[in-house]
């Protein structure tokens, strides 16, 4: 009874209530942080993500993402864009966390440099030159071309090409430069990517069709003149402005980087847990070994008093 009374007094005390209130506030802050969007309306508006194409060029399938029309140009609903960016970023984070590759694709002038920079920063493959037809559906052939490039590098390094004529060496060098330009960015892609991130699905329609055929999920920035039906994760936004592309890619690449960091942390935890388990398993073995080592020593200690007693008995007999 006394214990229950003390507990009641503790719960009614001011310090206890204050601590509970603080804990509640901390939990609320954590939940709000989790719910926070990776981008916001003002940021997207400033980058020009809301500008669509002319009304006469629009695709009716994009109607749900269009807010209004002004001066013959469609305006994209940025509230929907914010939601879609968060959805896509979360999905990309999970793919990166599972250790799979995401292929970034954009051959248009405005996006080339941004795609190359962002993809390189997170260690993902990308295509910014011409899309090689059959790159996904005929992947083994593309891998052969990449291996050929690696073989040329190897032969150049060991001095095999030093015996060739200038003409032959020039031809091989040109071939190597062409392969590097088109396939250099996917040299580390040893298997099919788990997802495709595309900027301008109208221009990269071959890449989208190949991904759909193989069941690879497609993440894409889709403008008002494009068809979103073949895209798994639609991000309605202006795909022609450099700032717009950069804002969307920043949010997505940040999510991928988070996924990779979480994967590293999980691996480190698993390694530590395995080492700990091994140590726990090793402890009984050490104890058993120690006991075995001590066991032979015990009889010797027991024999010593017997020998002393025998010596004592012999001494009076000699007298």
Helices and strands in order, then pairings?
Elements: H1 2-12, H2 14-35, H3 41-47, E1 51-54, E2 66-70, E3 73-76, H4 78-97, E4 102-105, H5 109-121, E5 126-127, H6 139-157, H7 166-183, E6 195-199, H8 205-214, E7 218-222, E8 233-236, H9 242-318
Parallel strand pairs: 4-5, 4-6, 6-7, 7-8
Antiparallel strand pairs: 1-3, 2-3
Helix pairs in contact: 4-9, 5-9, 6-7
Care to describe what's here?
The strands form two sheets. The chain has a five-stranded parallel beta sheet with strand order 5-4-6-7-8, with helices on both faces. A three-stranded antiparallel beta sheet has the order 1-3-2, with no helix packed on it. It is flat and about 95 Å long. β4, α5 and β5 form a beta-alpha-beta unit. The protein has nine helices and eight strands. With 319 residues, it is of the alpha/beta class.
Total strands: 8
Radius of gyration, in Å, reads 34 Å
Helix/sheet category:
alpha/beta
Spans of at least 5 consecutive residues with low confidence: 29-34
Biggest beta sheet summary: 5 strands, parallel
Estimate the global geometry from the Cα principal axes: flat
Strand order of the largest sheet: 5-4-6-7-8
Series of secondary-structure elements, N-terminal to C-terminal: HHHEEEHEHEHHEHEEH
Distance between the termini: 81 Å
Helical content (DSSP H or I, runs of 4+): 55-70%
Strand content: 5-15%
Write down the overall mean pLDDT: 81
The number of helical runs is 9
